[in-house]
Each structure stands twice: as C-alpha cells, then as structure tokens.
From TrEMBL:
Residues 12-243 form the ABC transporter domain. CDD domains: ABC_DR_subfamily_A (cd03230). It comes from Stenotrophomonas daejeonensis. SUPFAM superfamilies: P-loop containing nucleoside triphosphate hydrolases. The lineage of its organism: Bacteria, Pseudomonadati, Pseudomonadota, Gammaproteobacteria, Lysobacterales. Keywords: ATP-binding, Nucleotide-binding, Transport. It comes from the Bacteria. PROSITE patterns: ABC_TRANSPORTER_1, ABC_TRANSPORTER_2. This is ABC transporter. GO terms for molecular function: ATP binding; ATP hydrolysis activity. InterPro entries: AAA+_ATPase, ABC_transporter-like_ATP-bd, ABC_transporter-like_CS, ABC_transporter_ATP-binding, P-loop_NTPase. SMART domains: AAA.
C-alpha cells in the first residue's frame, strides 16, 4: 500500500495509543498527541514514563497494543513500510560499526533503504558536511570524539531524507559542549524543514530547542502545549509561609495571588513574579496572620515537572 502523504496532516498523530508488554507492564495507557509539520517537539518525562516505548512504536521497533499512529496522514499499521520511509530514527545508543568509516556507514545505510549508490554518495557528502564531519569521512569511526559520533548518528538518520526525525535522548550523558553542538545541528535540520521530535530528561534542552512539548508520566500525557505557554504559566513564584499561631478559618483574598493552607500553621502562596510582596503581607496582617518565616519553592520547568510527575528531575544529573 502506498503512503497517503498529506501535507495538511499532522507530522504525527497518536490516538489513544496503548502498550502492554508481554510481562503485563502497561507502558502506555492511552496517549493522544499531535505534532504539527515543521514543529520541534519535546517529549519529556522521568525514567520509565513510556517515552522509549512511544518512540519504539512510532519507529516500528515495538508493536502497539491498541490505538492509531499516523505519520503525515499515513497509517503505520495499514502502510508500515511506506510510513517508515517518512521517519528517521536516532536511537539513544551509538550503534554503528566503529570499524567502518563515516562515509561508508552513511552510504551503506542509504543503500539498505534502497537509495541508488551515486545518489547515496552525494547525500553522504552533503550530510557529512552539514554535520561538520567531512574531514573525518575516511577515518575509522572509532577515532571520532563522542560528540562527532553523535552527529554521525544524526547524519545517518538524515540519509533517507526523513520528513520526521525522531531522537531518543540524543544528548543523554554527553557534556554540555557536545550538547550545545548537537542543538545547533538539530536547529539547522529543523530550519531546513524537517519536523523533529526528541525525548529528553533535560528540561533546559526542551526549553532551548522546542516550540511544543508533552510531558508524559506513568504512560499518560500529563501536560501538553506550546513551550511558551507553559513557561508563562510558570512565571509565578511560589512560597511557603510559616505562621505564628493558628490560621483563621477564612483566609484573606489577595487579587492575583493564590493562597492555600497546607496545615494549621503553613500557607502555600503562588504569586506573579512582578507582584509586590508587601501587598501580601499587608493583607495577611489585616487578617491577623503573622508570618514567622518564608521559603521559596523551586521554580519554573523544574517545579512543573515535579508537580506533574511527582518525580524529582534529578535523572538529569
Ligand atoms: N521490552 C519490555 N518488556 C517489558 N517491559 C518493558 C519493556 N520495555 C520497557 N518496559 C517497561 O515499560 C515502562 C516504560 O518504559 P520506557 O522504556 O518506555 O520508559 P522511558 O520513558 O523511555 O524511560 P527512560 O527515561 O528510563 O528511558 C517501564 O516500566 C519499563 O520497565
Ligand atoms: Mg527511554
């Protein structure tokens, strides 16, 4: 069956995707998601959230249990090979032959996908140049640095000219310089028109690169939307206030801020960053509430992530 490539369709559409592994683990519990053509999209989530399962399904490494996957309108189950041809995958682990040369790795990969030799060689040159690896084309891959090896993985995935590039934790465990370097490469690829989806533990990475994101936890999407909207939502400061004595039954209302009692002598306060703290203290004082001490809650994406997943973002370490 020929893929129905439809330029109006989302680059990726998941409908109620479910995956139960043979051992009974429910890795995905009904995930629905749309990624627009041209988007740079992050799938964020803690260990075991289901990110690799989701990506494995989309790239046909894992069979889905229920639900639907469409790539540019082409159904993964009904038109598997045609759909797969639209996708380039960069797995987390380096999995090329270290005793092959970058040029050969790329040409052979394209050959495997049916790209004619001459065309494959032309593409290999183009991709190696884009990855700033042209001067390494004829060296043993083993001798490349960690960052170069990762760029080679991306170059290889680009050999089939995918419309959707999917990367599973492309920068896990690499140092910040390599990470920045890869961000640049990915931004160039995205600017040239390829839709990109990546999974990451690194909140900073999602913030730097992605226009839209979904946060996944325990096999469900817990938050989804534009990065900017999410960050705006987070443009609040959170404090915990320790109160002298007992809180009154009725808390004062403070315009623009949110106040909640955690227990009889602790208040949870969320307020816009720009708001004057004195207003809060005045209102509290007026209601007979005396603040003994206050602490900030952690902030921004970190905070949201923790709030949504109940999981410290410490995997990033
Ligand atoms: N082949 C498998 N067989 C059985 N269970 C699996 C298999 N692969 C993953 N799981 C389970 O499915 C759940 C989701 O795993 P998955 O690898 O998709 O998470 P992840 O979000 O990629 O995590 P990480 O950030 O650690 O890579 C986990 O509970 C995991 O143990
Ligand atoms: Mg994973």
């Amino acid at each position: 069956m020929v893929a129905q490539i439809d330029t109006d369709s989302p680059a990726l559409r998941l409908r109620d995707l479910r995956k139960t592994y043979d051992n009974g683990v429910q890795a995905l519990k009904g995930v629905s998601l749309e990624v627009a053509p041209g988007d740079f999209f992050a799938l964020l989530g803690p260990n075991g959230a289901g990110k690799s399962t989701l990506i494995g399904i989309v790239s046909s490494l894992v069979n889905l249990s229920e639900g639907q996957v469409q790539v540019f309108g082409s159904d993964l189950v009904a038109a598997r090979s045609a759909t797969m041809r639209l996708i380039g995958l960069v797995p987390q682990e380096i999995n090329f032959n270290l005793f092959e040369k970058p040029f050969d790795i790329l040409v052979n990969y394209a050959g495997f996908y049916g790209v004619p030799r001459a065309e494959a060689e032309a593409r290999a040159e183009e991709e190696l140049k884009r990855a700033h690896l042209w001067n390494k084309a004829q060296m043993m891959s083993r001798t490349l640095s960690g960052g170069m090896k990762r760029r080679l993985m991306i170059a290889r995935a680009m050999m089939t000219r995918p419309r959707l590039l999917i990367l599973d934790e492309p920068t896990a465990g690499v140092d910040i310089e390599i990470r920045r370097d890869m961000w640049k490469t990915l931004q160039e690829i995205n600017a040239a028109g390829t839709t990109i989806i990546l999974t990451t533990h690194y909140l900073e990475e999602a913030e730097q690169l992605c226009r839209n994101l979904a946060i996944i936890n325990h096999g469900r999407i817990v938050e989804q939307g534009p990065m900017r909207t999410l960050l705006a939502k987070l443009d609040v400061e959170g404090f915990l206030l320790d109160i002298d004595g007992e809180l009154p039954a009725q808390l004062p209302r403070i315009e623009g801020a949110q106040l909640a009692a955690i227990d009889s002598h602790t208040l949870d306060l969320d307020m816009p960053r720009a708001m004057d703290l004195n207003r809060v203290f005045d209102a509290l004082g007026g209601a007979g509430i005396r603040v003994r001490s206050m602490r900030t809650k952690s902030n921004r994406l970190e905070e949201l992530f923790v709030r949504l997943t109940g999981n410290l973002a410490q995997e990033a370490a």
